[in-house]
């Protein structure tokens, strides 16, 4: 096959964990359960945030988008992974691979920027509480979300075609369980220094810049919290910001490793498990973190459940 045009022909073979058949069977059960719990948890967050009037605030507007991102991100790859783990067929079409790569890069980029927006929301809530609703008005919230989505999609529109069009000289085996950028770059039969350089530059804007912004925002938040005299006031702020800080730590601990090392410099096996953690564990934990650590969400769930029970009794 001609190496110059093989990128648009045939199917890809996702090797995944095929070297460990016993591990595949265990992973299938674990991932299926985790995926179903992820769907249930994030759907619950979205429904509670929309149905309870007490949660119609900027914070929960952004949290709804985070849950939607987690649902979309997980669904873009996990069903294909479950299909491959459950049988001998490990193939994915070129179109399917392209869609998977586009969604992986696009949704991942949006989430990086969304976490920065959520950090700014917490900064305004803690440092400028009297002006919070004025500053975080609906127009600004929509504008920030549109910016996050626009930048994430633009990043994916640049990197996805560049990655897919790399000559592979007939090689179609992807040493991963999804069409992820580092795995596809490793398949290339040409020097990939240029595309790795472009990926790094874009990562500075999509990954590192939001990270720096979040750290600065929380620096101001910590300084503001330390000036609060009331212990109950401090506890309330830490309780509210702690959820976001935990989610931020889980997300960035994985995304920096995967995104900032796009080529052969990253370990293949380690990269697989980190991607699996990022794809299923983080979206699974996010709704749990916001439910168990947040009194407002627990209160909203309680009101909805009690409201449904009382409605059934009347009927």
Automatic annotation (TrEMBL):
The chain crosses the membrane at residues 26-48, 60-78, 98-120, 132-158, 197-221, 242-260, 272-292. Coiled coil: none annotated. The keyword Cell inner membrane does not apply. It is found in: Cell membrane. It comes from the Eukaryota. Residues 41-290 form the G-protein coupled receptors family 1 profile domain. The keyword Transmembrane helix applies. It holds the Pfam family 7tm_4. Keywords: Cell membrane, G-protein coupled receptor, Membrane, Olfaction, Receptor, Sensory transduction, Transducer, Transmembrane, Transmembrane helix. InterPro entries: GPCR_Rhodpsn, GPCR_Rhodpsn_7TM, Olfact_rcpt. It is a multi-pass membrane protein. CDD domains: 7tmA_OR2W-like. One of its GO terms (molecular function) is olfactory receptor activity. One of its GO terms (cellular component) is plasma membrane. PROSITE patterns: G_PROTEIN_RECEP_F1_1, G_PROTEIN_RECEP_F1_2. Putative odorant or sperm cell receptor. Belongs to the G-protein coupled receptor 1 family. This is Olfactory receptor.
